Amino acid sequence: MSDPRLAELSRRLPALRLLATAAELEHYGRDWTRRWTPAPLAIALPAGAEEVQAIVRWANELRVAIVPSGGRTGLSGGAVAANGELVLSLQRMNRLLDFNAVDRTLTVQPGMVLQHVHDAAREHGLLYPVDFAARGSCSIGGNIATNAGGIRVIRYGNTREWIAGLKVVAGNGELLDLNRGLIKNSSGYDFRQLLIGSEGTLGIVVEATLKLTNPPPPSQVMLLALPDMDALMQVFALFRARLVLQAFEFFTDHALRHVLAHGAQRAIDGDYPYYVVCEFDAADERQQEAALSAFERALEQGWVSDGVIAQSEAQAAALWRLREGITESLAPRRPYKNDVSVRVSAVPAFLHEMQALLAREYPQAEVVWFGHIGDGNLHINVLRPDGLAEDAFIAQCEHVTTLLAATLQRHGGSISAEHGIGLVKRAYLESTRSAAEIALMRGVRQVFDPNGILNPGKLFAAD
Amino acid sequence: MSDPRLAELSRRLPALRLLATAAELEHYGRDWTRRWTPAPLAIALPAGAEEVQAIVRWANELRVAIVPSGGRTGLSGGAVAANGELVLSLQRMNRLLDFNAVDRTLTVQPGMVLQHVHDAAREHGLLYPVDFAARGSCSIGGNIATNAGGIRVIRYGNTREWIAGLKVVAGNGELLDLNRGLIKNSSGYDFRQLLIGSEGTLGIVVEATLKLTNPPPPSQVMLLALPDMDALMQVFALFRARLVLQAFEFFTDHALRHVLAHGAQRAIDGDYPYYVVCEFDAADERQQEAALSAFERALEQGWVSDGVIAQSEAQAAALWRLREGITESLAPRRPYKNDVSVRVSAVPAFLHEMQALLAREYPQAEVVWFGHIGDGNLHINVLRPDGLAEDAFIAQCEHVTTLLAATLQRHGGSISAEHGIGLVKRAYLESTRSAAEIALMRGVRQVFDPNGILNPGKLFAAD
């Protein structure tokens, strides 16, 4: 702690926990991207909102950049500290503060792990419905910073819909108490909504009030094998019309191969190019029969080649693992990731163009794709071919991403569906947001964070 | 049109429809508040987004204030033009532009009347669920500007949840195409959400893409008579736990008296202090029996004194009229209105304090209150006593509103639940939003509208 800025910080906050060993700097300085070399100044682990506020004020006075840090499971470099920033980890601020049965809300600190939020809601017979594979390590603060989506968006929407209130330390050091859990509040600009998805560039969430809902009725899980891509939208339209979908996820044979190699159990014999895992309400016989009849119709039409309905919770979990295990099974290969979206109606045309583009531009690399088809969200994972150097591989992927961004722009899509822009997609932001919008974003950032101390270089280049 | 600024506008846009007769200036210069004397410069009725953009650019160059104008059913003066502003009426931009069956969206111009949005959704077998009594004359653009709520918020949320995309001419003259109907789009600040509820101070909506949903299952409507205020929250908790509520609206005997005098039909004999109209899913016998059993339990507990379930659509409409007719029945008296909210859990304590405050501070005026209790939203209508001059009445009401605002602040509530701040509640904004938030709001406004030409003086005093 020989840095005079850190000495000043310790002088102001003698109880503040600070870390600065080489291992700690590396651990807290990176996220799941693994592309940048971590190089933070130090790690601060505040115990509460007051310490966060004092740190932000210190950072403003001494012009130190801060990287707000949650579970660091991000995939776009939003929590990377590679330029001497202070990492402000919310890890210790991980407590449940309140459950309100009448409002049906949980009030939590930002470092609370998503799985613990789920557990807390369930203990009270309720549901916090945002869910995705990183649930065991991502934090609710990070979910808010990226407006996290996941596998239940088709039924419940994104994180944005589940935030009733936020306490935030803005970049200017002010503590804001935004919306305070109100259902109706038409009293000027909704900064709660502005903060959601702002990737730590406007303020640091120090407390969140989350809406809860009734648990869904009993459901069933089905795995479908599809003969071709066109069948995908047909099956989706049929199932959406006849069932109450909770999830409708698809993946390719490439993805399946990796998951099976990673230890998952095959559920359908034979090889098919596309698969869907879907979950739907099955509270009574009528709904169960509707699901069977939809499946039979899809078979008759040739949209589905084979399928299986889980007969137990264990089997349902095994089917889900085929989809949810994909990211983990690919992780050792450190794939280059795209996370793109278009409107659902634009999916078929976009998919055709995208497939042609990927086949043409990645003649050697294996491309694994899967996604939340009911939300128009596709995840593309490109695996580095043996023998191609990392730098050359990234350069190739960035070139293809430029082409992909142009394709997305033609289809009115987004270069980031749910991972955020961070560092990884900064160069492509113009494909999704106009120059006028980006200028306004910079202006708004200037209002909230006049000295540009919060997560500089994320979302757009530092001034 | 002798004003040189208007001459310049006509020179730039020869086809632009401009109105300026005394009757037109009065008609378009006011909303439902009727407290300010309309005095606009003129009325512009653009035919499309290009004309709106040209008007905003003209206004920036010549420093002319613009009041964006929809159905002018607002209750807080947001659409009042009393200071020589140009009223920019979206009335001619009222067309349905697109229905997309796959995305389940309607794309509409901002001047489309809410009822026509409902009709268009219904024609396609779908539902646009935001609904309230002004549906026949309010415009969707105005709904967006105030984040309109209404009677189905308990089930479907506010307008905010139903906007998939917005085209907006910002105060700086730029045309923004925000979110473009995407379900997932984590690509920087969500200006769509920032614009919703901004009361025409950041930009003018020129096109909106609205999400639609499945129509609700068959429902039933019930009217309940309650013996006292404490029973209200008991019945609400019971009904919410056992039924799927679509609406849970309450009103007082005072409100009932006015509606009956206005031609509505009495549905329960006898006099009771409080009433609830609720609507709930009744798709099958199980749900219908659950409703009856909840009602019986409320009777047993003494929380309900009497009740009736509608046996036909006509009877359901008659029961609804008892609630929805209140505002209309009071309109000739030009009541002073408060529209406040607290968290649902804070309703009982707040209601007690509020009732004591109103009884003490309005010893002569009749106070009619009612509201959306399931959202924590109460509407208070104060009727001017005979013999009290209008000015003195308003002064008294503003004094009481100051006290009410302080009470709300103690309970973490909002001085505007769903009507917006406009001119009427500007003086009380500090009770709901902190000085730091208001400073940030002013900063954000400066970014979007650097010359302050959009709706100046609304939300906060002009600079």
TrEMBL record, chains A, B:
PROSITE patterns: FAD_PCMH (PS51387). GO terms for biological process: respiratory electron transport chain. The keyword Flavoprotein applies. Gene3D superfamilies: 3.30.465.10, 3.30.70.2190, 3.30.70.2740, Vanillyl-alcohol Oxidase, Chain A, domain 4 (1.10.45.10). Its cofactor is FAD. Residues 36-215 form the FAD-binding PCMH-type domain. Keywords: FAD, Flavoprotein, Oxidoreductase. PANTHER family: D-2-HYDROXYGLUTARATE DEHYDROGENASE, MITOCHONDRIAL. This is FAD/FMN-dependent dehydrogenase. It comes from Rhodanobacter denitrificans.
